[in-house]
Design goal:
single chain, about 190 residues, alpha+beta, two-stranded antiparallel sheet, 6 helices
Length: about 190
């Protein structure tokens, strides 16, 4: 019975190790605010050469000043409450001091017989850049000095910018879902 339990424990530990090491998200474990474990994705995300570049370093060294206060408070709460944090968006900085946008969740755990916190970190930098480009394009279309309409694949109007409604006199509600060919110039 003891051998079966030991084998099951080894199997469980091996599954966990493989899951963490091969995760597409960074996994960092810290004790008393210092990093004690980081997986390969965490090393890549921060721009380190190897885990030795990160082990022993303070977690706050990699937190962007915009996020330091919130993360410091969350670090205290996770330990005090012994509960996982909600998934939150924050800003980190890599070793070259470049901003990284992340979603993270902190989970109390035990590491080498000590109370620790495991943090799962998902890099959303590209998504944030794309959202900003979309915001800029939307603003440009809204403020464009020329009429712009966007149609669906059937050719029916799904969007008309303010200049279109100003120029044609049609409201968006009047043209929404219509084919632009049936519109007359002016009312």
């Amino acid at each position: 019975k003891q051998k079966k339990m030991e084998a099951a424990l080894r199997e469980s530990e091996e599954k966990y190790r493989k899951l963490v090491e091969n995760s597409p998200d960074a996994v960092v474990i810290y004790i008393d605010g210092k990093i004690v474990f980081v997986n390969e994705e965490g090393i890549r995300m921060i721009g380190a050469k190897n885990k030795e570049d990160l082990i022993g370093k303070p977690v706050l060294q990699f937190i962007h000043p915009d996020s330091t206060e919130r993360i410091t408070q969350r670090m205290i709460e996770v330990v005090q409450d012994n509960n996982a944090s909600d998934i939150v968006e924050e800003k980190f900085i890599d070793l070259k001091e470049k901003s990284i946008y992340v979603e993270l969740k902190a989970i109390p755990t035990i590491y080498e017989q000590q109370e620790a916190v495991q943090v799962i970190i998902h890099d959303i930098t590209e998504r944030k850049k794309t959202q900003e480009k979309i915001r800029q394009l939307s603003q440009a279309v809204e403020q464009s000095p020329v009429s712009i309409i966007i149609t669906n694949t059937e050719g029916n109007i799904e969007y008309a910018n303010p200049k279109f409604t100003e120029t044609t006199g049609y409201t968006f509600e009047e043209v929404s879902g219509k084919n632009p060919r049936i519109l007359k110039s002016g009312h």
